[in-house]
Each structure stands twice: as C-alpha cells, then as structure tokens.
Amino acid sequence: MNKVSVVIPFYNCPFINQAIQSVLNQTYKNIEILVVSDGSTNYLEKVTPFLDRIRFIQKVNGGTASALNMGIQNATGDYISWLSSDDIFYPGKTEIQLKTMMQMNSLLSYTNYVAINEKNELISTSLGEYFPDRLDFLNTMKKRNIINGCTILIHRKIFSEIGLFDTTLPYTHDYDLWLRILQKHSFDYLTSPLLQYRVHPNMGTKKYALEIEKEIKFVQEKHRAAIDHAIIRHINNP
Fold first, then answer.
1. Contacts of the segment 163-169: beta carbons below 8 A, 24+ positions apart
2. What does pTM read for this prediction?
3. I need a surface site. Which of 154, 170, 183, 236 has the fewest CB within 10 A?
C-alpha cells in the first residue's frame, strides 16, 4: 500500500486542530502527518493533543514555502499532499484521489473544492476549474492560477525532477511550482470536491492582496517564454 505524507504548515492559526483532525479522519490509513511550525507562537496548545499521532517539526519563521519544503524533505511517503492550517480535507480525499491516480497511472492531480467560513458553514458551490484540453489549460495557467494547492496529490519523484518551492516567493510559490511542472507534465483533475477552503478576514490572500498581485505578474513573466514554448510544442505534437 502506497504511503501518503500530508504536510501542514502552521503559523499562529486558530484552526490548526481542525486541519489535523481532518487528516486523521481520512479513510485511507497509510498516512503520515507532518505539522511544521514556522516559528509559531500562538495556538500551540491546539497541536498538543495530537503529538502522539503526528510528526511535529519546529523551525524559525521563514514563510510558508520554507515550511512546506521542510515537510517535504522530511516526508517518507510515496505521494505527498499538503493542507493549509485553516482548511479541511473531506474524509475520502486521499483514498479517492490516490485510487483514481493509480487507475490513470498519474503522477499528480488536483481536485474540485468548496469554500467555508470561520464557522465551518458552506458558503459556495464547487469552485474547481478544469480544462480537459492541454492547450486551453496551458493558455489559462499562463494568465492565472486555477489550482488550489491543498487539493494536490503528487508523486515524490516530481520534486526530485522539478525541485521544491521557491522560498523567495512569499505568496505565489505554488503558482511558480505549477508553471515549472507544466513544462514537462500534465495535471489530472477530479471533479469531486474533496477540500473545504476556509475564507476568513485574516487569510493571507485578503491581507496581502496588493503584494500578491505584483508577485503574480513577476512569476508570469519569469515563466512566459517556457510556457509559450510548451504551447508551441503541444501544437506541433498534439
């Protein structure tokens, strides 16, 4: 049975216990949970009850990308996923996603998802986007990131080939990684919503909206030539 490692970066988040519990509730049982405290000083007491069932790693504050990288580097699973400390996996997330990937002989996939608020109330219908045609997918990803990183399940060999997250990108390290991966691989998609994405006033996408917008433009320009080349390559060899 393949082992799945789930990395949860944690920095002063009051929802961390719910995130951890959602991974413990997975119907797929060959899972290791790595909670990486990125210099967190608050809500550590919410992690304490789980210490006998998780691997708890503490590091100095360096940002989400550095916490994810530390988790990935310490992971022992064949496949790796991650979960923001304020989000929640549906119980069948890992089992459904891994089974589908095995059937498709897939190295990585992302899934549909829904939004919840700070009271765990559902506040959206399905939010996932999928473009079955690789050319449409490349053209769309060139303009915007449609992948929620917490829906990803990825074979660890991808990191050996592509590398880890870029720690110089505080907000768009996930988008940067997808664009690097897209130059060599395709993303498979599951239509089932398997993640609850929490929307709340203190979330980073709201607090740092202007900085994120600037960083998105930087990442897009950084990969523009490579993605254009991938588009041309696909057109010539569909």
1. 164/68, 164/69, 164/72, 164/73, 165/65, 165/66, 165/68, 165/69, 166/65, 167/62, 167/63, 167/65, 167/66, 167/69, 169/65, 169/215, 169/219
2. 0.95
3. 236
